[in-house]
Amino acid sequence: MAVILLMILLTGCSPSQIEYEGEVSGNTFAGMEKEPVISYEMPAASPAILINQYGYINESSKVAIFKGSEMPEEFYVVQEDTGERVYTGYLENKGYNEKSQEYNCYGDFSGVSQPGTYYIEAPILGRSYSFKIGEDLYGQALNEACRQFYYSRCGMTLTKEFAGEEAHNACHTGKARFREEAEAFDGAGGWHQTKEGSREAEWAARNIGAMLFAYELYGEAFGDDTGIPESGNNIPDVLDEIRYETDWLLKMQNEQTGAVYAGITVCERDRGMGIISYVEPEDIRSSKAFAMALAKFSYLYQDYDAEYAGLCLRAAENAWRYVKRNDTAPADSLKFAAAAELYRASGRGSFHRIVLEYLEEGSYKDGMDEIDFLGCAAYISTSRQVELTYCAEIAEVILTKAEEISKETRGSIYRTAGENHQKLLLDMMYLTTADYMITNREYKNIIENHFHYFMGRNEMGINFADTEIMRQLDMDSKLIVMLSEMAFFAK
């Protein structure tokens, strides 16, 4: 049974101390996914004092990074409401970083643990952004990250009660059109992926896969009280949110053929005549991704609504039949992941054979992309009959990659394996799974440092969990993987 590989259950951890020693270096890595278009405006000068802008747990390690050719000797932690300096610290490990071409150093202020709002100031460098110290900040960050999907819902009115400043009337409720036909199509629903409101089925499925991966490993971190309309229905809000997306994906399937339309493209008409939405043609990749996501959701949702879970599984199998009829090429990562999820949900041997053929070919060993990873994770966690040799190989690949990531972080003052945020988030999926399998204190430290990185302690001083930035970068669901683990550890 593959579950043997995951027998060591996740345990909590006490706040860790982060040590900074040795030469500082930085590396840049190519992304594992398509690069997002970053359209937000950067400030003329990045902050010189970099901190986690969301905040720190009371008793946790707290480290700020300082940038500048001239450095003071001391820095101060200041209570924001009173202006009182509550802590004096000293800058350490000053030096020039050849890779990032910057002077930097760090300062530890772990001695500050009193709840409150603070900022750091230092002579020459100025002051940092404000940050909080408290007990449940990681859980709050996870809830807010999950709420970004609610704010992005298409086709429904978001009221001030639940959405606050994000409230708006129902959008894109008009019929979408096929490009070469006059036929109308109800394409409303799902999550906006662009500011215009376009939605791609494949990327929706990828987001679902990553969110369900986090939920499956750290379900206790997800509550039923995040403040969306479905809160309080005895179903974790993350599953309610995903169901809103699967409702839209079900619309995107041609029930007769099983094929899945690639998405809805929203365009502005010329001369201020409003907007028009187009249905993109049926697509094999979208159908594979659909089968993967709907099968996974059906498996994890069956305890809450067996009828809806069954509907999702039948739709996934229908999409698979379309793929089988029209895709004669060898299995790729999407086809493999879809087969792995369908095998787990249904137990059918035909799906298992596709999985085994892909694993026997072995290309995933040279470097998993996100979809390879999700397919492998599904296979080693299934309770169905499996080939233990392949499960052991998958586990070895994950653990080896986790060690590689760990080594890459040791030379960086930011304690990350590079600067590309998509790669870093995929790294966290590796480390999350590796830590789940063997529970490693060093992995927890690395994950926590990545949390600080994405919350503002990075080269540009950007809080990637900011509402506007999360909307413009394809990172929401992967960030939730990391946030869910940090929320679980903080309990």
Summarize the structure.
By secondary structure, the chain is α+β, with helices and mostly antiparallel strands.
Explain this structure:
With 491 residues, the chain is α+β, with helices and mostly antiparallel strands. It has a single domain, classed as Glycosyltransferase (Alpha/alpha barrel), CATH 1.50.10. The protein contains 14 helices and 15 strands. Strands 2, 4, 5, 8, 9 and 10 form a six-stranded mixed beta sheet that branches. Strands 12-11-15-14-13 form a five-stranded mixed beta sheet. Strands 1-3-7-6 form a four-stranded antiparallel beta sheet, with no helix packed on it. Strand 11 and strand 12 form a beta hairpin. The two termini are 31 Å apart.
Q: Please outline the major beta sheet.
A: 6 strands, mixed
CATH class: Mainly Alpha
Examine the coordinates and then state which fold CATH places here, giving the name of the CATH topology.
Glycosyltransferase
Rounded radius of gyration (Å): 23 Å
Question: N-to-C SSE series?
Answer: EEEEEEEEEEHHEEEHHEEHHHHHHHHHH
Average pLDDT over all residues? 85
